[in-house]
Amino acid sequence: MEMTMKALIDLTHSFDHSMPVYPGDDCPEITQIARIAEDEYNEFCFRGGMHVGTHIDAPLHMVADGQPVSAIPVSRFFGRGRLIDARGSSEISVDLLKGARVERGDIIVVLTGWHERFRKADYFADHPLVTPAFAEELIRKEVSILALDTPTPDRHPFPIHKMLLGNGVLIIENLANVSSLVDHPSFEIVALPAKYQWDGAPVRVVAKPSP
């Protein structure tokens, strides 16, 4: 068991009160409401949106009658990972999929290197965006999830969000530590969100490299 656990790679940013948020969104508020010294236990209260830190977008986020996170079959959160190395690219284009052997049900993990700027002032500016052709190819291949180390695949009015979520492809944003996958050509992804009846949820994303 110890060897198996050591092999796991955590792709999730730690959640705290200083998490950067998408411009215009509310900042998370984390308040301690009980303390061991006075109450004999610790407890914290959280207030914030569902699209902070490493999180998953459900169809309801952009589709009027789309599924909330709680309605998505749990099997969708497990799958074979496919790393797409987009470092140095100004956009996430369909050319990056050449030779990737993408198949139905895969979880596509895109490495841009942007995760290294997560707490920097320019994190939400000038990051690579997903092209329509890239999104169309993922839809055609019937992948399960597109997971990014950037804050969003697109910008307002969010055409890529609507394309992917409208065709059943879930989106994970704000991955961490994705560069750790470069030396692992084969891996599985587990991305389990809280079972919220809303349009998104925090998610713990873990990669398990193949032996």
Q: How would you explain this protein's 3D organization?
A:
The chain is α/β, with parallel strands linked by helices. The protein has one domain (2-209): 3-Layer(bba) Sandwich (Glucose Oxidase, domain 1). Helices cover 13% and strands 27% of the residues. The protein has helices at 2-7, 36-39, 132-141, 159-166; strands at 9-10, 29-34, 43-47, 55-57, 78-85, 91-92, 107-111, 129-130, 145-148, 170-173, 187-193, 200-209. Strands 4-10-9-7-5-11-12 form a seven-stranded mixed barrel. Strands 2-3 form a two-stranded antiparallel sheet. The chain has a two-stranded parallel sheet with strand order 6-8. Helix 3 packs parallel to helix 4. The longest helix is centred in the middle third of the chain and has 10 residues, at 132-141. The two termini are 14 Å apart. The mean pLDDT is 95.
Query: What is the overall pLDDT average?
Result: 95
Whole-number tally of structural domains = 1
Distance between the termini: 14 Å
Overall shape: it is globular
The CATH topology, please? Glucose Oxidase, domain 1
Major pleated sheet: 7 strands, mixed, barrel
By DSSP, the count of extended strands is 12
CATH architecture: 3-Layer(bba) Sandwich
Structural class: alpha/beta
What is the CATH H-level superfamily? Putative cyclase
Helical residues, percent: 10-25%
